[in-house]
Design goal:
Elements (H helix, E strand, L loop, with lengths): L1 E4 L2 E4 L8 E4 L4 E6 L2 E6 H4 L5
Antiparallel strand pairs: 1-2, 3-4, 4-5
Length: 50
């Protein structure tokens, strides 16, 4: 839902908040939820956790 008026725009999001995640070619995963940003390097985790 977006509400506009003369001096700018107000955005209101309604619904379930899903974390946004991204992985680069080196195996680093970055995800964000609200104001928290977390990272993990899956190459450093190793095969013991599969």
């Amino acid at each position: 839902v977006v509400i506009g008026y003369d001096e700018g725009t107000i955005m209101i999001k309604i619904g379930r908040e899903e974390p946004v995640a991204s992985m680069d070619s080196s195996g680093k995963i970055i995800w964000a939820k609200h104001n928290e940003i977390q990272t993990v390097n899956i190459r450093s985790v190793g095969a013991d956790y599969e």
